[in-house]
């Protein structure tokens, strides 16, 4: 029977097959059908974000059960075949799954979203007033107050939490990832001092009130700035004999606790969410980002650029590159081209020769040099003429000549603020100029001035359609003012002739700069 989008089974063991197995089959059929559609590379990733991810998240939250690793491996394989329908993967899945700020395309990692859905449940357990009716049932299944369960030592829960339940599934996930993603430690400053089987006996209410007015009593209330809070020094609230006894018993317990040094550290970002005792807005997205940040993986293309350019590239410069790649324009084709350039997506003659037994590593532009990636994009004598013409055009448009190097023209590491560049005509012309090079891939020809003007005009028209208010209209005119006024000048007409003459000279003398 299906109820609210979930197939109900007569035994818990059948929930996976009836729901996740069925959904996987449906997703396979959908992606197989969509695979033949004319979708861009980034468009396919967006399909996974907007169509597939919500369907999986619904089941992750509605059925918080343990899922086998094979399920996620099958999903990854399915997604990979959809993203690369006619060719082998050119980038690692792990690179694509990074956030855009870290050098990826934010391709959903479903296993991490699965983890985030279980972490959301723990945040709900810690909420003072979540209003979730299922918590009454789970409290009965856990045998202990839910807010205390995640922080109690794992062996103490073995015979208390009912197995094969949503609580046991969440705890199994929690204990497997809490250290891996730096979510917490064992023990944690959130270790409960009530509802704790490892610390039996009552603690008087009067003693708890000397540490905190919160209804929960945790280690973080007893330890401050790495020291025990000495309540005996507070003369305004004298301690009774019973309070003093409980206080020293508490200190003895914490001193004998294995790994007690971790109790003194600051709270992690995840623990801070839990300590607030509130429901978290957009909780799965927020917790997914915490998991992402714990992964210190660096895209391999960053190191490759440093080797290609024979120079280190700072984190600040990579931040500018990635910001301008993803936020420099709202036109997806230009965003895709920019990311393809920095990620070495395009295949050079040298790479093709290594793949093919009979391949020729020579440059396609007949310059008699080896066609490495940097050569095809920058050092080839012919392509340098093209970039020189682009540099001249940028100077005419902006009265500013950007540094003539691959860091600027290929990695967008242009001098100036990111916000200023995003509003500039310089960035727009540069994005369009870069997008024209792949149109002449495997060809000795170079883009013409008419191709560039057409592409920039298409970008201008696309941006004009996005104008929605007087404020944005003024910003649009400010951005395009110098392009509009320069295009009709005699100086630009003369420059057009110079561009054509340069290409004619190159066509007549192959290989000559």
From TrEMBL:
Task: Supply the name of the protein.
Answer: Reverse transcriptase
Which species does the entry assign this protein to?
Leptobrachium leishanense
